Please model this.
Amino acid sequence: MDKNIIDTDWKYLCQFLPEDLSELAKATGAVERWRNIKSGEELLRIILAYAMEDLSLRSTAAWSAQTDRELKDTSVLHRLRKAPPLLERVLAHLLRHQIRPEPAAGPEFRINDATVLSVPGSEGTDWRLHVVYDPTHSCLRRVEITDPRGGERLERDRPQPGDVVCGDRGLSRAGGIHAVTAVGAYVLLRMHWQNIRLENAQGQPLDLNQILKRANAGDTGTIVYVPLKGKAPVLARLLIRPLPSEVAGRNRQRLRRNAAKKGRTPSATALRLAGYFCVLTSLPIALASDDVVVELYRIRWQIENFFKRCKTLLHFDHLRAFDPELVRTYCLAKLIEVALIQCLHEEAISFSPWGVPRCRTPAA
Model:
């Protein structure tokens, strides 16, 4: 987003924001009483300037002076630390109210994934951003920011009946599959053999050797069941496609390299499975054939492109604070920037030279 929009076109952006920003600021504890900042709109503008323009606390205070608001850097710090609850409400408003001139009928394709964020000087996982992405409209559906203990789980999503929930192998767990199935949605996941146990119709573990032999012979689909203690097994399809020899070789080389970094040796089974592409889905074959399922999984890569755009264009991965509340404020403000870009994009698509008014409806 053009950084000048905070300075010159702020009133234009306000049409996408909640109308009761001042009341929200009071209700969420972002402010106790108004002093130099006179409204929730002014408070949000200062917060977005801090995040979108990557300003320091002192520079943010100096920037506020240009808008006739005299603030000290300590006052800015105090406001930023109390901002996360307000920003969460604003972000929820932006994600719910999308411009939909012609809403598409039918279930959604929801891609679940997470990316890691690091504080300055760190090379590890300090924060994790969990995202549900809609590739049909190229927009966010749900977001959640957690510390390193917040693992990837399908239970974070809230799909509707009939939706297709797609994810990488890190999300391939029995608990998440059962949670999605319980609401009438379907899963489409990369298979993770260490995280999940599959059974046949008789409740016995799958014969992996037999399944791989069948896959090599061209029989790539197998009916399986996903068990979970205390619940009925979920019926699913396991699709296995042999990979080209050069791709399989690269996978095995990467597997050995990653294991060596941890002082381990990959098992013979893991090296063998590196030569296959394995997908698990609960989609009935009447809705999607084996070939269609494999093609659908290719769409998952769109969320990787989304993360790349956020990190390269919006510098989302350049956290500039150690304080947990400042980190949450920065991340939420960046996500509001993403949501505003979506709104501006949809505004451009729905533009009418004849003056037809826009129609905003809550997103599903």
